[in-house]
Design a protein that fits this description.
The protein is an alpha+beta fold. The protein has 5 helices and 8 strands. It is globular.
Length: 176
């Protein structure tokens, strides 16, 4: 199975939490049908990306990265690469690279949400996951970040984009 096939499968099987998310799901599938290269950065019409919101072991805080190019507090994530076997693997790879932490595990149930946004390189069709950090994990700033910081759930809306705040709410709902 290719990464593209996995993305199509994930999107077809995913149960969107609301009508807006379902519309995005459909738009992502249409994009992939129209663009054979729609999984990767060279696709100028936009491309699928994978991200992960990292939750601490106590399930009280999330790790955000101050993105070097965008100068915004965001969840970890980025472009899919040819070596990624699945969207979930791409999200975990990006989360590990950008946080410096190993042993992250994705919450079960597939993506937590979708977010389509424009960036300097192209439109991103982001598939957002949530990941749990293992006990004792210590974040380490990567070259893609200016800073990494843990934020309590209620602090995120004051520092981050509304899409990140929504991802936090969807993740909290999953955590119960």
């Amino acid at each position: 199975m290719t990464l593209r096939n996995d993305a199509e499968r994930v999107l077809k099987e995913w149960h969107a939490p609301d009508a807006g998310q379902d519309a995005l799901r459909g738009a992502y599938l249409e994009h992939l049908a129209a663009h054979p290269d729609g999984m990767y950065k060279p696709c100028a019409a936009g491309h699928v990306t994978a991200s992960a919101l990292i939750v601490d072991v106590a399930r009280e805080r999330v790790l955000l990265t101050l993105h070097r190019k965008l100068n915004m507090w965001l969840q970890t994530g980025g472009h899919c690469e040819p070596g990624d076997a699945t969207l979930a693997a791409a999200a975990l790879r990006e989360a590990s690279e950008e946080s410096g932490m190993t042993g992250l595990t994705l919450l079960p149930g597939g993506p937590a949400g979708l977010d389509r946004h424009d960036t300097p390189c192209a439109r991103h069709l982001d598939v957002q996951y949530a990941a749990l950090a293992p006990a004792g994990a210590v974040p380490s700033i990567s070259e893609e970040s200016l800073d990494l910081r843990w934020y309590g759930y209620d602090e995120v809306a004051a520092v981050a984009d509304p899409s990140v705040a929504m991802l936090v709410e969807r993740t909290r709902a999953r955590l119960g």
